[in-house]
Each structure stands twice: as structure tokens, then as C-alpha cells.
Design a protein that fits this description.
The structure is a homodimer.
Chain A (H helix, E strand, L loop, with lengths): L6 E5 L22 H13 L4 E4 L22 H9 L6 E7 L5 H14 L4 E6 L16 H19 L27 E2 L4 E2 L14 E4 L4 H10 L2 E4 L4 H17 L8 E10 L3 H14 L2 H11 L28 H14 L3 H8 L5 E5 L1 H13 L5 E5 L4 H17 L12 H5 L10
Helix pairs in contact in A: 1-12, 2-3, 3-4, 4-5, 5-6, 11-12
GO molecular function (chains A, B): monooxygenase activity; oxidoreductase activity, acting on paired donors, with incorporation or reduction of molecular oxygen
Protein name (chains A, B): LLM class flavin-dependent oxidoreductase
InterPro entries (chains A, B): Diverse_substr_monoxygenases, Luciferase-like_dom, Luciferase-like_sf, NTA_MOA
Chain lengths: ~450, ~450
């Protein structure tokens, strides 16, 4: 990556998110169509995006929003990513997998295979999951601190397994019939509190050494894990000052683990709405907001962050009351903190809060290519970001708008790459190759 | 599928198997190359093969054969299959996944997604695995009977989750903002001995209703599972009489579960070596056998089936002693039975046994396109098979030989399809659509 250019990742939901699916131009059945995702991946690649990222959930929430919201079904990202790897050549593919409801041997193996198959373009978004226990032999979701303790050890096992073989272990000498050099094999023999895993992994070291690890934890335990092992850090930050504080705090925390500032890239999420004029962009945004069901959404988010009262029962133009002093949820402390802070800081009306939150908690950027480029530039220049995770609804026209209008503006200003810098995702991101700890 | 035509599946190993990798024409690094598998999948599709099947293992055997054999590493079939789905249009993709070292919710979801993504071409080879416990928090591999008890329940959970949604559950009514019909959702709420899984699955019903289930169990418990749930039955049978007996026994066992004869297809494996003349085919075969290391192989197989003595210590032309009376292994009763029976029935020399076993226990068919077509025709006509699982080494030239020479001969005789019969794997195999048990 050239000096002075930033990273662009794209977030694509499992289905069209929010109200995007209700727009006349939105296709039906995106959750049954590989072509839908292929279009997106190829378009983003044409726009030189560094990576494409799929989040995940492991259950269907049986709540009021179920009937009206499109988030009930989504493919496993580890099934979608290989298909997109075979459909593209350059863009990185970051798939989410849970450390709470998987086995580390399986996860290590799948990402190593994906890294091979994609020619070094695999990333693992390491999550502890927001729910799902009832689908995995549990009465309820595993507790927050237990999840993170397991996640720390899970990562150690996975990354240890990724180093099972020296890069030159498989000599494949036809004349002597020697397939591999047995001295270049490391048996991990991990004996930990949560895991006992012998190894070695039955996949050879992959093009990146290790697939890139993405992390978005924002609780104390989540931030600690991100600082120790995260290489792409996804975060929701609302002001440049907050962004810069988070940036400095995270890089310092990583440094305390002996990591250099260039070993992790911090990407705040932004949700863009692009128009030729600000008025056109605003009209696009308003059209989507009108199609959302404010009552259902506000009721759902009130429960989601344990607000203690129901926003949907308040008048739309009333100022939102202050939230409780203490955090109480098990599952999404970061989202809870974001909402609570937003209410305390901005004292918004219900309507204003609704508009903020329907972006999934990320900043909404409504504007022209120029104004959006200005905004991203300002954050980057202020040291609040190494780049951005662009939160798309999955609507093709919105991705087209960004790639066709905003990307050229960023390139014209020298802020964004015109060509991929290397072959692997690591090379494109400017992250160091992960050498093998055992060889 | 037309009357009188048989099914052809292909078995492709994770790397070039046996000694194939040592041949001058064999490419190196097949375990790092998507192009290797894409070539194979596309060639088999050009040859109208019904399906392509990948087996799996979950560990690296730290034995004498490790250094010399190519089976140490292989990609997870559930990562490879989606990439090949995006690279082909018609051929079925059957990926192996273990019921012993996975969670049913994850497995149900991955295959449903693969079925969507491939347009209805997914198959699940359900295995209980031959090993791997030490990579999954266990001192050793789970015991045979426990594995099968878990497998039975695992299947029930997976297939129940596949029926979580009616086919028309996702109405996506833009005008009213109704995404789904909540009455067309079934919460499984499975409470069993091994699994407690609430559901619903967060993937919609897939094009085939259920992905095709393949099974190759050959122990008593394995055969029972195959008879109850298997739709493609892979088996190793050495004589037409054995094949016919197995065929009749399996169909009768399925009938006892209320299943029709057309609800499962029985595919014995055969390992072909094709030449323009028999002499040319024999020379090809001999060339590969010479490159194998008989000592290492015989030592390894002696342990693998718990023979009680070491074949590698016997003279190559000595008749093999009789094996023990009783079966003792935990992990591969079917392979053990096959070897023991072979020794008892044929009283082979060590050399003869070596040649038989290096096919992975399957029949070796060395011959011309005509003689191979004769053989397959005879088995099919005798009621010993619904088709065949063609065991390839992964060498491209051997696949080319079969597709370019044997397939046209089979087509000329009216034994094999010239075009795919339908769109989905189920349609192509002549297996019935799986209706939803709850809707």
C-alpha cells in the first residue's frame, strides 16, 4: 500500500438489510442467489476494494421483528466465501466464524483451505457470537467473560495449528518417493483449560502464513483480544475525537502486546448514501427510512441494548430519556455502550436516534462524492482511521454509486489505490507476512 | 434418468493418491491448487458424471507411511465444494462431514447454503470418521457404537432443521413490509440424548428440499444407518455375487424402513486403468505399482485392519496366512472385513493382496474401454449396482482417459446419459424431492 492511501473494506449483509429489500429496484430472493453476491464481489473488486466482509448469526430471533425484518436467514459465510473466491481474483474475503460454537481444529482447517483456494485472500472475523446457545446443546447463550476466555485460547490453538508445517515441508521428491520432510512438522499438543488439541493440522501452511484476523470486540475483554490478535479492527465511532481516541488507545494496547502500529488496521464503519447533489442523496435516504417500521425497530432495539424502557412507546419528537447508569447485557456491550453514550452526548429526539441507529450504529454519510471524500479524508488525516469499513445494505445500485462515483473521487485525490498493491490480502493491506513460530 | 441407464459418481482424493504423484506427468502441489480441482470437476461434467465426491479425514496419522504417502494434507471438502459449485453448472458435489466432530446446527446450515449456492447440487457424505478424537478434546477416537448412536440422532436433527421453513415462507411483500409468514416456520425443539437444538435453521429450504445424503457404513450399525437415511450408498464389493447380495440386502433393509427401492442408489467403487489395448492398460497399472513402496504399505495396512501379523515381513510370493477369527478394530470394521474375507476367499499371495489393496479395497478394472464397459454392464444387468463410484487417483490423464474413451463407449451402448436429465442432483439421480415433513 502506498504511503497516504487508506484501506476500504465492504460490509455486506446476508440479505438486503433494513428496508432496502422493500425498494422497487430491490431483487427478491437474494438469500437464494449466488449471482447476487457474485455481482457485489465483482463490482467491489472493479472498485479496488481491499476486502469484502460477511458477518454472521447462529440463530433466528423469535421476536416481533422476525416477520418484518430480512435478517432471519443467511448463508454460512464459510460456504459463501469459497464460491466468491472462485468468482474473483483480487479482493479479500473475510468470513465470520464463532469461537463459542465451533471447534478450533475445524476453524483452523477451513480458513487455511480458504486461504489456499483463494490464493491468499482469506480473512477470519473472529467473533464470540451474540447468541445461539439454544442451537448448541445449551439452555442459553454462554456468558460474556466465558466466551472471551474461550476465544483467547481458541485463537492460540488455531494459530498454533496454522504453524503445523514449515513452508517447505512438502518436498514431493518423486525419485525417492519422499512426500514430506518429517522434521518440518510440528505437533502442537495443546493442553489448555478449554481445549486439548494434538495436531498437526491436515492442511499445509497457506499463502499468507496465517489468514488475516479481523476483530470487532468493543467490551473490555473484546478490546483486549483485538489488541492482542486483531489485524483488521472494525469499530463504530461517531465523532473524529472519539475515533482518534479509540485509534490511539487500540494501537497503544497492541504495542503493549509487542505489536507494531502497522500490524493492525483500524476501520471505523460508515454507511454512505451517495447522490449527485446533497438533496438527491437526502431524498434517497428518506425514501428508505420511510419504508422502515419505526415502531417495530424501536421496540426491538430497546430490548437489544436493555434500555429499561421502550422507545416505541414515546412520541417521535420527544427527547429520549437518559439510560440506566450500569451496563447489564450479556451479549453486545459495545452496541449498548454506543447507544447509551449517544443518548447521553447528543440528547436526541426519538426520531434522531432512530435515524442514527438504523445504520446499525455506524455513522451515516449522506452526500455527494465530494462531501463523502472530504469526510473520509478528514478522519484519515486526523489519525482516526487507517481506512473504513463501508456498510452497504446489499442493494446493487448503492454499491454501484459508491464504486462509480466515490471511489474515482478518492483516487483522484490520491487517497485510494488505483491498482491492487500485491497478490495476497496481507500484501494489499500492508500487513506483514506471518512467519512460522516453530520453523 | 432414463430407464436402463446407470449412475456414475467420481471419487477424487484430497491429493494424488497412491503412487500417482510420483509419475512424471503428475503436477506438484495439487494440495495448494484450486485449478487442479477445477480441471477435474469440469472434465467430469463434460463427461456427464452425476457427481463428484470428496472423502475426508480429521487428523494426520503419525505413522511410518506419513513421510512417503500423500494423504497427510487435504482441504476441508466443505470449503472446496462451494468453489467448485461456482466453477461448474451441472455436476453434483458431495462433501464429507463427520457427525462425531461437528455440531448438527452447523452441518445443517452449511449443506443448506451449499445447496442454494449450487442450484441444488449438494450432497452430504455422512461419516462418523475413522479418527481425530485427539484433535477434538478427547484422549482417543470415540467408540464405534457411540459414534453411530450419535450419528443417528445427528441426522434426525439435521434433517429436522432442513424442514424449518415451508418452501413459501418468505413472502417478501414489499407493499406491506412483510418479509415472512410466521406460520410457515417450524421450531424443531429437539431434546435428545446427544443433542438439544431449538432451531429454526437460519437458512431457508434449499432447492432439493434436502441435500442428497450419501453413506458408506458397512458395519452392522453403519448398514442400519445407510438403510434408514442413505440415498447414495458407496460400497466395496469384489464379485458380482457379493455385489448382488449386498444390493438385495440393502434395498430390503431400506424397505423395512418404509423406503422404496428408487429412494437409494447403490454404487460399488471401481478403480479403472484404461488403455487402447489390455497390454497398454496393464503397463500403465504396473508402472504405478512399481512406484508404490510395498513394504511401507503392507506394514501400514497390517496395523490398519489389526491383522495380527505384519505382511511386510513375509516373502512377496508367499500365500498370506489366515487372519484372526474375530474382528477387533474400533474404526474401520468394513475395511477389516473386506481384507479378512479376501484373504479367506482367495488365499492370495502377498503380491496379489498388495495389488488388490492398493486400490483402497475397491475392484481394479484394468482394460480397454470395451472391456471396462462390459464389466460395468454385467454388474448393472445382474442387479449388483445402480451405478458405480469411479475411484480416481486424481491424475488428470486418468480422468481424461475415462471421460474421453470409456464414457462414449457407455453412451454408445445406451448405458449412460448423454445429457443431464434435470437441474438438481436429485433430479439427475432419479431420487425423489424431499418434501417438508412439517408443511
Amino acid at each position: 500500500m502506498s504511503q497516504g492511501q487508506f484501506v476500504l473494506g465492504a460490509f455486506i449483509p446476508g440479505t438486503l438489510s433494513g428496508s432496502a429489500w422493500r425498494l422497487p429496484e430491490a431483487p427478491l430472493d437474494t438469500f437464494r442467489s449466488l449471482e447476487h453476491y457474485q455481482y457485489i464481489a465483482r463490482k467491489l473488486e472493479a472498485g479496488r476494494f481491499h476486502s469484502l466482509f460477511f458477518n454472521d448469526t447462529l440463530d433466528v430471533k423469535l421476536d416481533l421483528a422476525l416477520q418484518r425484518g430480512p435478517n432471519s436467514v443467511r448463508w454460512d459465510p464459510l460456504i459463501l466465501a469459497p464460491a466468491l473466491a472462485a468468482s474473483t481474483r483480487h479482493i479479500g474475503l473475510i468470513a465470520t466464524a464463532s469461537t463459542t460454537y465451533n471447534e478450533p481444529y475445524n476453524v483452523a482447517r477451513k480458513y487455511a483451505a480458504l486461504d489456499h483456494l483463494s490464493g491468499g485472500r482469506a480473512g477470519w472475523n473472529l467473533v464470540t457470537s451474540l447468541g445461539g446457545g439454544e442451537n448448541f446443546n445449551r439452555q442459553e447463550h454462554v456468558e460474556h467473560d466465558d466466551r472471551y476466555a474461550r476465544a483467547e485460547e481458541f485463537y492460540d490453538v488455531v494459530s498454533g495449528l496454522w504453524d503445523s508445517w514449515a513452508d517447505d515441508a512438502f518436498i514431493q521428491d518423486k525419485a525417492s518417493g519422499t512426500w514430506l520432510d518429517i522434521d518440518k512438522l510440528h505437533v502442537l499438543d495443546h493442553q489448555g483449560e478449554h481445549f486439548q488439541v494434538r495436531g498437526p493440522l491436515n492442511v499445509s501452511r497457506s499463502p499468507q502464513g496465517h489468514p488475516v484476523v479481523a476483530q470487532a470486540g468493543a467490551s473490555v475483554a473484546g478490546k483486549r483480544l483485538a489488541a492482542r490478535v486483531g489485524e483488521l479492527i472494525f469499530t463504530a465511532q461517531h465523532t473524529i475525537e472519539q475515533g482518534r481516541a479509540f485509534y490511539q488507545e487500540t494501537k497503544a494496547a497492541a504495542a503493549a502486546f509487542g505489536r507494531g502500529a502497522n500490524e493492525l488496521k483500524i476501520l471505523p464503519g460508515v454507511s454512505p448514501v451517495v447522490g449527485k447533489t446533497l438533496a438527491e442523496a437526502q431524498a434517497k435516504y428518506d425514501r428508505q427510512q420511510e419504508l422502515l417500521e419505526p415502531k417495530a425497530f424501536l421496540s426491538s432495539i430497546s430490548k437489544f441494548v436493555s434500555l429499561g424502557y421502550d422507545l416505541s412507546e414515546l412520541p417521535f419528537d420527544e427527547v429520549v430519556p437518559l439510560p440506566p447508569e450500569h451496563f447489564t447485557t450479556n451479549t453486545h456491550q459495545s452496541r449498548q455502550k454506543l447507544v447509551f453514550d449517544l443518548i447521553r452526548r447528543e440528547r436526541p429526539t426519538v426520531r434522531q436516534l432512530f435515524n442514527q441507529l438504523t445504520s446499525g450504529g455506524h455513522r451515516i454519510l449522506i452526500g455527494t462524492p465530494e462531501s463523502i471524500a472530504d469526510d473520509l479524508h478528514a478522519w484519515y488525516e486526523a489519525g482516526a482511521a487507517d481506512g473504513f469499513n463501508i456498510m452497504f445494505s446489499g442493494l446493487h445500485s448503492a454499491i454501484d454509486d459508491f464504486v462509480d462515483c466515490v471511489v474515482p473521487e478518492l483516487q483522484r485525490r490520491g487517497l485510494f489505490q488505483r491498482e491492487y498493491a500485491g497478490t495476497t490480502l496481507r500484501e494489499n493491506l500492508g500487513l506483514p507476512y506471518r512467519t512460522n513460530r516453530f520453523f
